[in-house]
Amino acid sequence: MNPMDWSKEFPGAITVCDTAGIILEMNDASAEVNAKDGGRALIGKNLLDCHPGPSLSKLKSMLENHLSNIYTEEENGQTKLIYQAPWYQHGQPAGLVEFILPLPADSPHIVKD
Questions:
Q1: Do the beta carbons of residue 87 and residue 103 sit within 8 Å?
Q2: Which residues, including other chains, have CB under 8 Å from residue 69's CB and lie 6 or more apart?
Q3: Rg (CA), the chain
Q4: Where does residue 20 rank: exposed (0-12), middle (13-18), buried (19+ CB within 10 A)?
Q5: Hey, how many other C-beta atoms are within 10 angstroms of the C-beta on 39?
Q6: pTM to 2 decimals?
Q7: How far is C-alpha 49 from the chain's CA centre?
Q8: Hey, how many other C-beta atoms are within 10 angstroms of the C-beta on 94?
């Protein structure tokens, strides 16, 4: 089984790039989210070419310094959790993985002690 098979139909978008920003893998949801920019045709392209201004600077810093970036955003009334973090292969930084997870409007926020 290919390690990415579990993610193919996962409802959140998953995009994986290498340390240079080259897109290695996209699941179905990622291809759909990025359809206007080419969808799966983006595999093999550099994600840095898809981001202008401040987001480009942020991505470069994340790739160079192996940093995470986690936030929520709202677009067309849909709130999403964006989780970008380094991934590792044999203990060495191998690139970034981005999860875009749609959050239902009635999602509870639970505080545990």
A1: no
A2: 58, 62, 82, 84, 85
A3: 15
A4: exposed
A5: 15
A6: 0.90
A7: 15
A8: 17
Reduce the DSSP state of residue 50 to 3 states and report it.
helix
Report the CATH number of the 5-103 domain.
Answer: 3.30.450.20
Domain ranges, ordered by start, for the chain: 5-103
Model confidence band, residue 51 (pLDDT cutoffs 50, 70, 90): confident
Q: Which of 33, 58, 34, 35 is nearest to 48 (CA)?
A: 58
State mean pLDDT over 70-99.
96
- pLDDT confidence of residue 3: 59
Nearest-10 Cα torsion for 11, 94, 57, 49? -70
Beta bridge partner(s), residue 97: 16, 85
Phi (first) and psi of residue 24, to 5 degrees: -100, -35
pLDDT of residue 2: 65
Tell me the per-residue pLDDT of 29-42, one tens digit each, with 9 for 90 and over: 999 999 999 999 99
